[in-house]
Amino acid sequence: MSRTGPTAPELSDATLAAEGITVRLSGRAILDDVSFTIARGEFTGLIGANGAGKTTLFRVILGLQRPTSGRVRIDGSDRAGHRVGYVPQKFLLDPDMPVRGRDLVGLGLDGHRFGVALPSRSRRRLVDEMLEAVDADRFGDARVGQLSGGEQQRILIAHALISRPKLLLLDEPLANLDLRSAQEIVALLARITREQQISVLISAHEMNPLLPVMDRVVYLAGGRAASGTAQEVVRSDVLSALYGHHVDVLRVHGRIIVVAGTGHDEHAASDGSADGAVEIV
Amino acid sequence: MHQVLRAIVEPGFFSSSPVQLAAAVGGVVALVAAAVGLFTVLRGQAFAGEALGDIGAAGGSSAYLIGIAPLWGFVGIAVAAAGVMEMIGIQRARGRDLATGIVLGAGFGLAALFLYLGTTFDNTTGATVTILFGSIFALDRAILPAALVLGALALAIIIACYRPLLLSSVSPDLAAARGVRIRWIGSLYLIALAVAVALSAVTIGAILSTALLIGPAATALQLTSRPGRAIAVAGLTGLGAMWLGLLLAYDSYDWPPLHHGWPVSFFVVTLVLIAYLAARVLAPRGARR
User: What is the pLDDT of residue A161?
Assistant: First the structure.
């Protein structure tokens, strides 16, 4: 199901248009007719519990997973993955591996090309600019594996941005960060979205850190999606229809708490953040 | 001064034909193993390299049995085994251990059979030691062009695939999102690994081949944070260990207890270990150069 509010962008203007995406893997629908659009320069949160289909949706947008039906259009093009920057969920590199932050950022520029990168002043300047843009110039010469989680996120964001994408995808970038680092990353992403007029789609199972900067929410539950502003989507009637049973939405001190019903429902059960019956989203 | 030099470099070292051949082949092998080995370490596939060396022993010993140069046996079976590993699924961490374990077991089983048959029928009792521990001073001259071509092939793969290989070694997810065909790159890399292991096996033996693959790369990790420099440092370390090992082995001809020379492989492997330990001690904690 799809829900687009009055602020929905025109299709022609959209950086990303997902049109009726369905993905079935061994008979099970991972994504079920997911449609939404993201306008240029919009900051969008992809909210849902683990197993809701967020990573699969990213793989479709990146062109790594063919949808069973439906299609994505990115900046008017049918080529999935075209002009998309990506920050993956799991990133593990041993601390003693000889790869510096700036090496990884440089690979964002030309890591898909064959051969060895010849040292050039313009390439070096581009990497320096990008490290500065994400406030990573201090630790750009340190090994990636020795950086903290927040520092690694900045390097990965620079890696994704250096090829000048129209759309930036981030898979749970806040998952393993402390509150302060998470806030800094969110502020950085909001600034980049504004400055460079690119669109951001960021997945999270916890939406509250994103509320101050989020233009739009795509809410995934059981493979189905609802999209619009947080006011339009995160409501009891909309989420109840999405989940297929009654859901309460509480707004307390500027935070949103979603109480997803029965306790044996897959959404609440798969998320460790609440006591089974109540889920704080 | 001249006396000291004579004591270090025994007379006839540089003019000896087997020494020249060993230095040429050993030099090529050390450089190739170091360049490939850095990616082996980055990709966490050291165990896979060891397994390829061990199954290479089956290839080397079967080559003995049918009377062709062991190098071709090593290369043929290592490349085939790399293909099997790729099929079982070396991309996934669990698949990696499974693939490696299966190939390792099969390799030793076959090697045991072929070495047994070889020594029983042929009375070439030296075959077992040669295959497992190497015999670089007893190389056939015909091996030099073959080693050069194979070494160039492995280096060409590494250089041609350098960027996508580095990115997919750091993170397969990032590489896939960037449009890198990670399975293709991984397969090409496995061919380079199989060739490098086969070349190492011919020079310092099937069992010790991992030392030349992993040791210099591990040394380089201690000394530099840059991938390009790490390959250079690993190459120099490998080359140094190989050539110094040859020199010491040549010197050792009149050493006790046998006055018959100590094996080159022992010196090479020991020197690699010393280089690694020295780098660990000398490198500033968490070297960031």
Answer: 93
Closest residue in A to B171 (Cα) is A91
B197-206 pLDDT, tens per residue? 999 988 888 8
- Domains in chain B: boundaries: 17-282
On whether the CB atoms of residues B26 and B243 are closer than 8 A, the answer is yes
Would strands A167-170 and A248-252 be described as parallel, antiparallel, or unpaired? unpaired
- pTM reported for the whole predicted model: 0.86
Residues in B touching A111 (Cβ below 8 Å): 163-164, 166-167, 174-175, 178, 180
| Residue entry with tokens 């979603």 | A258
Are the CB atoms for A70 and A33 separated by under 8 Å? yes
Contact B228, B243 (CB under 8 A): no
As for the ipTM of the complex, it is 0.84
Chain A nearest CA to B175, separation (Å): 7
Q: Read off the pLDDT of residues A22-69 as tens digits, 9 standing for 90 and up.
A: 999 888 889 999 999 999 999 999 998 888 899 999 999 999 999 999
State how far residue B165 is from chain A, nearest Cα, in angstroms: 8
- Residue of B173, B229, B280 best to disrupt the A interface, most CBs of A under 10 A: B173
B interface with A, Cβ–Cβ < 8 A, is 38, 41-42, 159-164, 166-167, 170-171, 173-180, 220-222, 224-230, 286, 288
CATH 3.40.640.10 correct for B17-282: no
Strands A69-74 and A248-252: unpaired
| Contacts B170 to A, Cβ<8 Å | 93, 97, 99, 104, 107, 144
Q: What is the pLDDT of residue A272?
A: 37
H/E stretch holding B92 reads none
Q: Which of A91, A104, A115 sits opposite B160 (nearest CB)?
A: A115
In 3D space, the residue among B234, B155, B187 whose CA is nearest the CA of residue B84 turns out to be B187
Helical segments of B205-263, H only? 209-223, 227-251
Contact B212, B240 (CB under 8 A): no
Measured between CA atoms, how close is A57 to chain B, in angstroms?
Answer: 13
**Angle formed at CA A230 by CA A189 and CA A158, multiple of 5 degrees:** 10
Contact A81 B179 (CB under 8 A): yes
Instruction: List domains and CATH numbers for chain A.
Output: 1-83+165-245 (3.40.50.300)
